[in-house]
């Protein structure tokens, strides 16, 4: 009989503790979730839409202050130098091939016509020249 009462007491204690823990971790109300989200947004801790990279911490240091005209001039200069990164974060566009500046329009046209006669041109949407027969 003593064994059963000890076992019953242990079961009752474990059930009571699990019930207390379940109440402590009850789901948050809608208002609590909204408050937590607003706080995280103000702190800059939200992940961007689309599951982008992790949030970056905001710098508390103030960078150099530039006017709109200064930023526009800086961007125009970077565009001239070919240093701008395209939208989406890709690599800067490659510079045009050096041989295109060395040839005149007539020379390029003659070269293209010669390649056409030899069957060396790649058809639009194709992966390589057509095999010659």
List the defining traits of the structure above.
0% strand; 133 residues; mainly alpha
Q: Can you describe this structure in just a few lines?
A:
This protein is mostly helical and 133 residues long. It has helices at residues 2-24, 30-43, 68-81, 98-102, 105-118.
Question: What would your notes on this structure say?
Answer:
It contains 5 helices and no strands. It is an all-alpha fold.
SSE arrangement, N to C: HHHHH
Compute the CA-based radius of gyration.
35 Å
Mean pLDDT: 74
- Shape type: elongated
Structural class: mainly alpha
Beta percentage is under 5%
* Low-confidence segments: none
Question: Number of DSSP helices?
Answer: 5
Helix content: 40-55%
How many beta-strand runs?
A: 0
Gap between N and C termini, in Å? 101 Å
User: Main sheet?
Assistant: none
